[in-house]
Amino acid sequence: GAVVSQHPSRVICKSGTSVKIECRSLDFQATTMFWYRQFPKKSLMLMATSNEGSKATYEQGVEKDKFLINHASLTLSTLTVTSAHPEDSSFYICSARDPQPFQETQYFGPGTRLLVL
Amino acid sequence: LAKTTQPISMDSYEGQEVNITCSHNNIATNDYITWYQQFPSQGPRFIIQGYKTKVTNEVASLFIPADRKSSTLSLPRVSLSDTAVYYCLVGEGTGGFKTIFGAGTRLFVKA
To answer: Of B42, B10, B64, nearest to A92 (Cα)?
Structure first.
């Protein structure tokens, strides 16, 4: 089956620093990837849609200058949390859309736990 | 964008069949219905996807009535390891779609 990886799995950083999270589709090419964040016991909240070779589309309320997304290749998207603050602490999950064999199937990465001190 | 409604939580016992129903009254013609399973501190895992009627794979069955305004995920003979949150998602349509997660159903399987 389709596999999506994320790196790192968890990261602790100081307030004010930037953190980069990588999302890779390992066995398929993904023209579209998605970034979500999830707070404890809450559902996933879509942050942005990342399209290869073009600018990401951000959901309402998500600051594009704070959450930088780059989708430079068909297998890699990165999310950079700039000038992180404690309120950015969350579980960040990426997904990649595999158009084969079904329409609209997303495969999710294992998630990245970010803790900002 | 199709909105989904599921029960917040369900309890079951090991060995029982569990059916989780999701309503999606404004599903569009091009939309598929997809179910995911999520364990704590993990990304959601794809379970099953369908468009209409019945779909079955090695882990679950998905029943979709003719009007497609609801769907039921059926888990046969659940075990303790099936304790998780189950999400029903409906796609926005072909190309450029995005997925909005509802609250999901928290299934707790007891011994």
So the answer is: B42
A113 contacts B41? CB cut-off 8 A:
yes
Per-residue pLDDT at A69: 94
d(CA A41, CA A29): 32
Q: How many residues does chain A have?
A: 117
Q: Which residues in chain B have their CB less than 8 angstroms from residue A1's CB? A: 46
The full 3-state SS of chain B, as one line of letters, equals CCCCECCCEEEEECCCCEEEEEECCCCCCCCCEEEEEECCCCCCEEEEEECCEEEECCCCEEEECCCCCEEEEEECCCCHHHCEEEEEEECCCCCCCCCCCCCCEEEEEEC
C-beta of residue B4 within 8 angstroms of C-beta of residue B23:
yes
| Per-residue pLDDT at A19 | 97
Place of tokens 């079955």: B56
Contact list in A for residue B103 (CB cut-off 8 A) is: 43
Phi, psi of B31 (to 5 degrees): -80, 140
Determine phi and psi for B82, rounding to 5 degrees.
-85, -5
What would the mean pLDDT of A12-22 be, rounded to a whole number? 97
Tokens describing residue B13 = 């016992």
**Section A43-63 average pLDDT:** 91
**CB pair distance less than 8 Å for B42 and A102:** no
